[in-house]
Write a structure and sequence with these properties.
single chain, 833 residues, alpha+beta, six-stranded antiparallel β-sheet, extended
Length: 833
């Protein structure tokens, strides 16, 4: 947890690697995942870099792997899961064998696919011919056989043929959706002199290229004359109809059908053998394909990274620049040594640390528990380098503020069980790759959901609320002192704490409030004051966090000129209001005999605060006092005056200080790469802190050396106005804790009274069935409305309270994320896409 208070200290380093050890060294760095490289070839076109040929080679290998993977998925073969045994980056010599194997497999698959398409095309043609021969049996009769001749083989000239009335015919198959246009076109070109008979095929045929079903129709067109025959064939060609020879003799057709069926059986056997061979090849390849894919991805990432390096003038050394966490410098040094040893390089690679004034990237080391909370902060803005990280405190304050709005033991238990299931089964659930974006969000925030459910159970116990009902765990501390007749004859009775209360309920609210008519009034007052108290404490904590930033960045003047007036303004006004709430709870009670201290004389804290700000007075009731203690008017005036003095203090203090000290500060401007303390690191050594961590211009601080004084005055005026107004608006904004808590409780009560209570009031026998149905509807509405919708609403409001009300007091969020070269991040990122 200590690492989360500030981002990791970073060092800008130079790497000097021998070309023969470059591949293995970068591979080792990719496995560690703790180095962010910088591009030293920004001016060089991506197609002119040193390793662009190797990158293209990897692209070609990826294309082949994608093609083979598509074929494997087409056949429904499952790929093995290798998350527990991820291979390392391949040796450049090993990739030659892999390339040859993929080339051979791809060629074989292409040949098999082409042969299969050709055979399926032949099979389709033979199937269509068989359908034509079988379906045209009913188109011909014994009398027609004497007059039909598809080839006009009968002797004699055309005049004799026409005189005898001999008819020609054309048979074929056409797509069913084109039949009506085909018929119309034949009628137009022949002027009604073509007789067309057709029969739809019941079973669809499969397209040889795509495998999609095709519905077709068998047709026979009868005509007279050779010229009309040529026209019909042209129309058939235009409509993509397949024509097949069809003998006019019944015996010839029967013989032809037998031959076609024999050929179909032979072709089906060949297709079956081809499918078996294809399946065997794909099954063999599928065992190694995931490993090959990861190996090629790692190899491509290595060459992409090597393209960021610069070659020295002697062409004997690769130079790279990178950001490294100082805690991981020994890991990087060891990775470079292992990379050099892997290829037997005699010249070791070494690392130089460079002093620079450039702002380093922000790296917060997280684990599976804190990663979700860190993502919430990073969604607002990446922290400036080395400034305080709100995620450390968000781990507790976020689920707590959520629970204040979602305080119900039953609903909190549902969230707790859901989060616990995801946490306990995280190893199995993490293997789900295609769960969708919503599932990934839920699973990534599983520990947030777990804590939100746990804290909601706690606040549900404090509110004594479980599905809008109360639990009588310790027995009510209120006693009914009225007799039976008084209770039966009076619809409303008031119970005084003096006579009816035996003490304080041990934990949370007394269950008797569930029956009280003034339950809403009491809970409103309680939750409203609780929201203001929590909000003011949260904002005071946020303002106090700015001190740690000022001390770390050595901006000690800002403690006096910014923090002190800010905390005084907040404490003397709104902190005083919270103090008066507690003072009112302690001073006024029903057991005292002094009338000014009885509950009826208790003044309104809100009215008192308004009068304090406006220097007004409100006349008290008879026998009561306007103020809670004697010196309260003088104290309030002092607090308001000091609070008003804080405004010009914040407005003018910092600009005047900068103006007075500007002439004394003569700073030397460093340029990136200026080696003021450049040193070579031996293995195991840890460098001194680098960068400008302690300067005014460091991350998390604003430099004003070159800024005009007019800009500084305007900038400070904006900040002062924003803080003064936001202190008021942010305090009111925390009332959302009360509003959403009230809305959640009322929705839960309405759902119970309007839905579930109906089933509980039904007659015994029919009520059993009705209660079963109504209980299902109540569960559905509870999950959909109260848990999911209300939970999402409370989550978003909690997120706003942290982003705006809390983090704006000390958090700048002007940094950029540390994005290390990591094989794991590359592979996980591609799987999510």
């Amino acid at each position: 947890m200590g690492d989360m208070f500030r981002s990791e200290q970073m060092a800008l380093c130079q790497m000097f690697i021998q070309p023969e050890a470059a591949y293995t060294s970068v591979s080792e760095l990719g496995e560690t995942g703790c180095v962010q490289f910088r591009d030293l070839n920004c001016t060089v076109n991506v197609f002119q870099r040193k390793f662009v040929t190797e990158v293209r080679r990897c692209d070609e290998l990826e294309r082949k792997i994608r093609y083979i993977e598509t074929e494997i998925k087409k056949d429904g073969i499952a790929l093995p899961d290798i998350q527990d045994d991820i291979p390392r980056a391949p040796n450049p010599r090993e990739i030659i064998d892999l390339e040859a194997h993929l080339e051979k497999t791809e060629t074989e698959m292409i040949e098999l696919a082409q042969n299969e398409v050709n055979m399926k095309s032949n099979y389709l043609e033979l199937t269509e011919l068989r359908k034509v021969l079988e379906n045209t049996q009913g188109f011909f009769s014994d009398q027609e056989v004497l007059n039909l001749d598809s080839s006009n083989r009968g002797g004699g000239d055309e005049a004799v043929t026409q005189h005898r009335g001999r008819l020609g015919f054309v048979a074929g198959v056409i797509n069913r959706e084109r039949v009506f246009g085909f018929e119309r076109m034949l009628w137009r070109i022949s002027r009604g002199n073509v007789f067309l008979k057709r029969s739809d095929l019941d079973d669809p045929l499969n397209d040889p290229a795509t495998g999609h079903p095709i519905y077709k129709t068998v047709f026979v067109a009868f005509f007279q004359g050779e010229q009309l025959k040529n026209r019909i064939k042209k129309v058939c060609t235009g409509f993509h109809a397949s024509l097949y020879p069809c003998p006019s003799s019944h015996n010839e057709r029967e013989e032809m059908v037998k031959n076609v069926r024999t050929r179909l059986e032979d072709l089906k056997l060949v297709l079956s053998q081809t499918e078996d061979h294809r399946s065997r090849v794909l099954a063999t390849v599928s065992k190694n394909l995931p490993s090959w894919s990861i190996m090629v991805k790692k190899m491509k990432a290595i060459y992409h990274t090597l393209n960021l390096f610069n070659m020295d003038v002697t062409k004997k050394c690769l130079i790279g620049e990178c950001w490294v966490p100082t805690k991981d410098l020994h890991v990087v040094q060891k990775a470079l040594s292992d990379g050099s040893a892997a290829v037997g390089s005699t010249i070791p690679s070494f690392l130089n640390v460079i002093d620079t004034n450039e702002q380093p990237p922000t790296f917060n080391r997280t684990n599976k528990f804190t990663r979700g909370f860190q993502n919430l902060i990073d969604a607002y803005g990446i922290a400036s380098y080395r400034e305080c990280n709100p995620a450390l405190y968000t781990c507790i304050t976020f689920p707590f503020l959520f629970a204040v709005m979602f305080g119900d033991l039953g609903h909190g238990l549902i969230l707790l069980l859901f989060g616990a299931w995801m946490v306990l089964s995280e190893n199995k659930l993490s293997r789900i790759k295609n769960g969708g974006e919503i599932w990934n969000i839920f699973f990534g925030g599983r520990y947030i959901i777990l804590l939100m459910g746990l804290f909601s159970c706690y606040t549900g116990i404090i509110y004594n609320d479980i599905f809008s009902k109360s639990m009588n765990l310790f027995g009510s501390n209120w006693v009914n002192n009225y007799n039976t007749s008084t209770v039966l004859t009076n619809p409303h009775l008031q119970m005084s704490p003096n006579t009816s209360a035996k003490g304080v309920y041990p934990l949370g609210l007394d269950p008797i409030w569930q029956l009280a008519d003034n339950k809403i009034i009491f809970l409103n007052s309680f939750k409203m004051k609780l929201s203001i108290i929590i909000g003011v404490l949260h904002m005071i904590f946020g303002v106090s966090m700015s001190v740690f930033n000022f001390v770390h960045f050595k901006r000690y003047s800002s403690i006096l000129l910014e923090f002190v007036p800010q905390i005084l303004f907040l404490m003397l006004l709104f902190g005083y209001m919270c103090f008066m709430m507690f003072f009112k709870w302690f001073k006024y009670n029903g057991f005292t005999s002094n009338q000014p201290e009885t509950p009826g004389c208790a003044p309104s804290v809100l009215i008192m605060f308004i009068n304090m700000m406006l220097f007004k007075n409100t006349a008290p009731l008879n026998g009561c006092k306007e103020f809670m203690f004697e010196s309260q008017p003088d104290v309030q005036k002092l607090f308001v005056v000091v609070g008003l003095i804080c405004v010009p203090w914040m407005l003018l203090g910092k600009p005047l200080y900068i103006k007075m000290t500007r002439s004394k500060n003569v700073s030397h401007v460093k340029h990136n790469g200026e080696l003021t303390g450049n040193m070579e690191l031996a293995e195991g050594e840890t460098p001194l802190p680098t960068g400008s961590t302690g300067t005014e211009s460091a991350g998390g601080a604003h430099g004003h050396d070159d800024e005009p004084m007019s800009e500084i005055y305007i900038h400070q005026a904006i900040h002062t106005i924003e803080y003064v107004l936001s202190t008021i608006s942010h305090t009111a904004s925390y009332l959302r804790l009360w509003a959403l808590s009230l809305a959640h409780a009322q929705l839960s009560e309405v759902l119970w009274n309007m839905v579930l209570s109906m089933g509980l009031k039904m007659p015994p026998y029919t009520g059993a069935i009705g209660l079963f149905i109504i209980f299902g509807a109540w569960c559905l509405f509870t999950l959909a409305i109260l848990v999911m919708m209300e939970g999402l609403s409370a989550f978003l409001h909690t997120l706003r309270l942290h982003w705006v009300e809390f983090m704006s007091k000390f958090y700048e969020g002007l940094g950029y994320a540390f994005q290390p070269f990591s094989f794991k991040a590359i592979i996980d990122g591609e799987e999510e896409e």
